[in-house]
Every structure is written in C-alpha cells, then in structure tokens.
Amino acid sequence: MTRVYVSAVMPITLEQAWRVLRDFNGLPDYHPFFARSEIEGGKPADQVGCVRHFHDHDGNFIREELLTLSDREHRCCYRILEAPALPVHGYVAEMCLKPITTSNQCFGEWWAEFEVAEADREDVVQRVSDTFRLAFEGAAGHYAR
C-alpha cells in the first residue's frame, strides 16, 4: 500500500478554505489541472454517494465517489471509481482542515492510500502530491483574486 500525505498552511481562514474545498464539483474553479467537472445524475455536490466525473486539460477523466463530508469536522473522504490515466487500485483519499487560531489561517491535510505497480509508483506519487498541493494553493488563491 502506498500512502501520499501533503499538508499546508493557507493564508486564509478555515471558513474560507472550507467554502472552496468542500465543493466536490468545484475543482475546475480553483485547480489548474482540471478543465471541467459534473456530478452524475444531477445529485447535489455535497450528497454522500454522489459521483463526480471530471476531466483534465488533456481530456483524461476521473470518476470519484464522495464517501463522507462533515461540515462540523471540516473533513471529506472519497474514492476513485475509474481513472484510466492513473494506474492505481483501491484509491481512497481524505482531506481535513483545522484552524490556526493564533494567526487566523488554516492548516490543511490531504492524504491518499492506494495500490500501484512499482514501475509507476514514483510518477503516481508525484502526480497525487502535486494535485493535493495545488488544491491547497488554489483554495488560497481563490481569495487573492
């Protein structure tokens, strides 16, 4: 099992970060990797069990299912259902936000566990790490615009 972990201090409040990152369908709004996204079946983007189907700028797609979403804990968990361009199996990821009370900033953690062939491991770990890092940067940048 491979585990990727990324953390960040964002120069925005917990409420601001959560407003952006809790939107399971909002990746294209703040993440440079992704071009478009939709929730299948017209379900709400915060409904546990909904499936997002999103595309990167090269046309690759990923389908992910929302497993948990907690506004109280500022946490969500999801799994990949289908990702032809990302050679992983059993991928489950979780993101959690915490307030930094002394500076009114936000601390974010994002991690994933999955199986990946050793030949693909380094590339996949880098891609997943970059995805998480850029999501935190994008959430913070959303308020800088």
From TrEMBL:
Q: Which InterPro entries match?
A: Polyketide_cyclase/dehydratase, START-like_dom_sf
Q: Which Pfam families match?
A: Polyketide_cyc2
Write down what this protein is called: SRPBCC family protein
Alphabetical list of PANTHER family matching this protein: BLL4707 PROTEIN, SRPBCC FAMILY PROTEIN
Q: Which domain of life is it from?
A: Bacteria
Classification via SUPFAM superfamilies? Bet v1-like (SSF55961)
Instruction: Give the organism, scientific name.
Output: Billgrantia kenyensis
Q: Which CDD domains does the entry mention?
A: PYR_PYL_RCAR_like
